[in-house]
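User: Predict the structure for this protein chain, please.
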Amino acid sequence: MQQTLLTRCPETLPALSDGTGASVVLTLRDWAAQYHACAIRHNGLVTTLEETRHATVERPD
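Assistant: Here is the predicted structure, written as structure tokens:
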């Protein structure tokens, strides 16, 4: 299993620095980037676990 799949997702997100439109856009972009990075790892981990489970079920004893 790839070590990167075992990396936890951030528990907190960057806070808005102020209420300007530019700050909101930049913060939302950072949130989206963190979400997508976490989703890729999560989906990779799920795929690895499913493959492991299928290999275990299909292997005769």
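The two ends are 23 Å apart (CA to CA).
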